[in-house]
Design a protein that fits this description.
The chain has 182 residues and is an alpha/beta fold. The protein has one domain (2-176): NAD(P)-binding Rossmann-like Domain (Rossmann fold, 3-Layer(aba) Sandwich), CATH 3.40.50.720. The protein is built from 7 helices and 8 strands, in the order βαβαβαβαβαβαβαβ. It has helices spanning 9-20, 35-41, 49-52, 78-83, 107-111, 126-137, 158-166, and strands spanning 2-3, 25-29, 43-48, 66-71, 85-93, 115-118, 149-153, 173-176. It is globular, with a radius of gyration of 17 Å.
Amino acid sequence: MLVTGATGGVGSAAVAIASAQGYAVAAVTGKAAAHAWLRQLGAGTVLARDELSPAGDSKPLRKQLWAGAIDPVGGAALPALLGSLRYGGAVALSGLTGGAEFAATVFPFILRGVSLLGIDSVYCPQPLRRELWQLLAADWKPQRSELLLDRELGLDELPQAFRSLLQGEARGRMLLRLSGDD
């Protein structure tokens, strides 16, 4: 299982959950300093972002490497990811931090039967949400969930937190304190 954007909130949780469910997880990140942390979360392999989609390599089909992928990034690397899925593999796409554009060929879909699955959190029916929340609280709860929390912050710290996010410096999740202590 490949997880892109592995140091982000969705990606880091995906690494931890997939690993806890018994998947061999390969995590993709642009942050060399986060490799050890990703291994603590359960990644067996950590790849640099440019290893997934090397510059100038636009082949529609590549070596079949991944049975599936969780991709909160999207953008230019998505076609390379689709082209490296094994026959019948699937990508669960949940974000667009890498961009909203999608330019690929149909080859992975018609020659390898891969699937691109969009993840929707807006119109997901409430019964399904409850079921998923229950799984996340029990069977899917990451074994080392404390590693997913980067830091707690107050409202006054939000501007710096936003800068950190936009500059790609954040890791995992941030918890906002809404108490009157700020």
